[in-house]
Amino acid sequence: MSDLKYALIGCGRISQYHLAAALENGLKVEALCDIYPPAMDVLAEEAGLSQVRKYTDHREMLEKEDLDLVAITTKSSLHAATALDCIRKGVHVIIEKPLALSLADADEIIKESAAYNVKVCSCHQNRFNKPIQKLRSAVEGGDFGKLLYASATIRWSRSEAYYKQAAWRGTWAEDGGTLMNQCVHNIDLLRWMMGNEITEVFAYTDQLVHDYIEGEDFGIALIKFANGSYGVLEGTSDIYEDDLEETLSIFGTQGTVQIGGKSLNLFEHWQFKDSVEELASLQEKYGESPRNIYGFGHLPLYADMIAAIRDNRKPYIDAVDGRNAIELILAIYKSSAEGKPVKLPIKDVATLDFVGRF
């Protein structure tokens, strides 16, 4: 049992996976917070936490509770402000994706977490997928030879009913479009695997089906990395009628890997010049069968964050990683809106800059 005291802010769609990971890692769940009390009641009952304290204002919770770690799973527009409130109280935070909706807010999180000596984890849990970890080892080991290019494909489906469940979804002020919400995990992986440093992006985004939201439901982008490699991104929520795939492929002079499934959980191709590992054995050893697109990554993500706090080290996925993902998405939005390539790094860009885009 951990002696770290934990609370969860936001009890919506994703919160059950955070709470389960917190409990399985032995955190002491002290409190829940949500502006809608019935959501807290349902979550607490399902988790067997009948005695947990409940708050409708996270600031009150931070004043009354002595907390070590808080997870923020509110709507996207509240991530940054809520995180900053926690950081300034000296509380470590796990922030659901996206880290923020503006680069200014992301930079403030990074700056304040350093000032207050607080750990910040950006919740890109797919980095902990077993096939992704195996792929990362190959990248870090130089197994690909020269990296040539990578492609990230997210072909999912989101219905009108999904957007009606929460009015903030698909809005520029509170969410962004498909790339910022559904595709951010694979975008994070694409940038991470290919060396992080990007020189230029050219993109198109469009609203092909979901004319009742503000943001895009389709995006394609070409990415030029500083190491001379390239990235190709395709992301959509327009697939009829169910989620089809989430795929990441990496190509080098000495290797080819493709990871697919609905949530980057299965090896589809693995071949290296000097490797004797067979695809079938890799599929058996590293393949996962999650019951949904959220996968199994929350559990190891929480374990890593607990270790980071105890060992006073950086989390495996920190706020800079979260910023990198949203910077790429905002660069894609900017390129599409302006109709021309965008040089990176970019500054002072936010989803609100694209109000009226469609």
CATH level 4 superfamily of the largest domain? Dihydrodipicolinate Reductase, domain 2
Mean pLDDT rating:
96
Tally of individual domains: 2
Give me the number of helical elements.
12
- Under CATH at level 1, the class of the largest domain stands as Alpha Beta
CATH architectural name of the largest domain = 2-Layer Sandwich
Question: What is the number of strand segments?
Answer: 14
Percent of residues in β-strands: 15-25%
Helix residue percentage? 25-40%
Strand order of the largest sheet: 13-12-11-7-10-9-8-14
Q: Describe the sheet with the most strands.
A: 8 strands, mixed
Radius of gyration: 20 Å
Distance between the termini: 51 Å
Helix/strand order: EHEHEHEHEHEHEHHHEEEEEEHHHE
User: What is the 3D form?
Assistant: globular
Describe what this molecule looks like in 3D.
The protein is built from twelve helices and 14 strands. The model has no long low-confidence stretch (mean pLDDT 96). It folds into two domains: 5-126 and 297-318, 3-Layer(aba) Sandwich (Rossmann fold), CATH 3.40.50; 128-291 and 324-352, 2-Layer Sandwich (Dihydrodipicolinate Reductase, domain 2). An eight-stranded mixed β-sheet has the order 13-12-11-7-10-9-8-14. Strands 3-2-1-4-5-6 form a six-stranded parallel β-sheet, sandwiched between helices. The termini are far apart. By secondary structure, it is α/β, with parallel strands linked by helices. Helix 1 links the parallel strand 1 (5-9) and strand 2 (28-33).
